[in-house]
Amino acid sequence: MAAGAEPAARRAQVVALLDGREVGRDDLWVALAEAAGGQVTREMVLDSRLAALAASRKLVINEQSLRAERAALGEVLGGAGLDVDGVERVIEAFRRERGLGPARFESLLRRNAILRALTNERVSVTEEQVVAEYARATAPVARVLLYTAATTAEAGRARREIATRAHELAGGVEVALRGALVAAFAERALRDSTDPTGGAGGVLPAFSLADVTIPAGIRRACEGMKEGEMSNVIGLGSAGEDGGGGALVVLLGREETKVGTLEEARPRLRVAIARRQQRELMDALSRELLGQPGLVVMDASLAYGGQNRVPSAGAAPGVAVPEAGSVRDPEGP
Questions:
Q1: Which of 133, 325, 134, 135 is nearest to 218 (CA)?
Q2: Local structure of residue 310 (DSSP, 8 states)
Q3: Which residues, including other chains, have CB under 8 Å from residue 60's CB and lie 6 or more apart?
Q4: How many helices (H) and strands (E) does the chain have?
Q5: How far is CA 60 from CA 51, 56, 66, 73, in A?
Q6: Per DSSP, what are the bridge partners of residue 203?
Q7: CA distances in angstroms from 323 to 141, 154, 243, 253, 327, listed in the order given
Q8: In the 8-state DSSP scheme, what is residue 17?
Q9: I need a labelling partner for 63 at 20 to 30 A (CA). Which of 9, 233, 263, 272 fits?
Q10: How far apart are CA 290 and CA 191, in angstroms?
Q11: Are 205 and 157 contacting, i.e. CB atoms less than 8 angstroms apart?
């Protein structure tokens, strides 16, 4: 090695100074590999295999492609109504949340661009899908408090105790009973609901009564209830009465949705359906590529990170995968 080359190489490995002492890359490698090695390795695998696919299909991914992906990401994160500054703010917040510096963020955009190009031809929207989407979009939206228990018997006991508690809180004043019921229900949900919404007093995000990811029993109950009422016990699951436990809801509100006529909504619905289809196709392709053999992790720290810090295959980096709600059933009712 030439004179001076060794000190220069050593300086190139210095990444920080701590109290005047040099900190090298090797000093941080083990902790970094354990903390984030799995995620970064997954991204590397996808980058490599997608690049190979793009080359074999002679796909051209250029700066224009990356700008289009950045714009699409901004629209997904913030909606179509944001101005340029608003889009930049939501993208910056997304990058901070995910820890995406310049290199990883560009890689994410490139992955999405390749995935989109590889799946474009498989996106197909039918009139039947548009009509079904319109039915979902125009169905009433319900706001409820939710309580779940391991069995319908336990849910029934909770219902009786909630009703008793509501009357105690109302103090015999009929007009106060509705508010008392909501308070008693939230109190019970916080105490022992088996659903994750229990920690928020049973508040379930507003949902369409045509949303098939919400159990059919809950949707049917909301259709026939008045605001401020508590449902009867709702059986969840299909493996017998107690196959999925029992649920109760208090209907806080039910609102009609206004999206115009089918003809007016058709272009917007077609875009939404196509976007959802493509997201699912992109996610499926990512999982397929990640599941292929060929990666051998030889570093113990990196192997640990892969075993303990890698998100599930359904959350492939670079693909927006919607999170399921608490009682939502991805297979429908």
A1: 325
A2: P
A3: none
A4: 11, 6
A5: 11, 11, 11, 20
A6: 145
A7: 19, 28, 23, 24, 12
A8: E
A9: 272
A10: 41
A11: no
pLDDT score of 311: 39
Nearest one of 39, 57, 34 to 107, comparing CA atoms: 39
Query: Per 3-state DSSP, what percentage of the chain is helix, strand, and coil (rounded to 5)?
Result: 60, 10, 30
Contacts of 316 (CB under 8 A, 6+ apart): 42, 46, 283, 286, 287, 290
pLDDT tens digits, one per residue of 45-80? 999 999 999 999 999 999 999 999 998 898 888 766
d(CA 321, CA 279): 7
Q: Which of 225, 169, 158 is nearest to 193 (CA)?
A: 158
Residue 116 has pLDDT above 70, yes or no: yes
pTM for this predicted structure: 0.64
Long-range contacts of 270-273 (CB under 8 A, 24+ apart): 270/125, 270/130, 272/133, 273/125, 273/129, 273/130, 273/133
b/e for 189-219, b at 16 or more Cβ within 10 A?
beeebbbebbebbbbbeebbbbbbbbbebbb
List domains and CATH numbers for the chain.
14-124+265-315 (no CATH), 140-255 (3.10.50.40)
The structure tokens 């810090």 sit at 309
Q: What SS3 class is residue 82? A: coil
Beta strand segments in 150-215, E: 203-208
**Do 149 and 194 touch, CB atoms closer than 8 A?**
yes
- β-strands 14-18, 21-24: how paired? antiparallel
DSSP H helices, 13-151, are 25-56, 63-78, 84-98, 102-119, 127-138
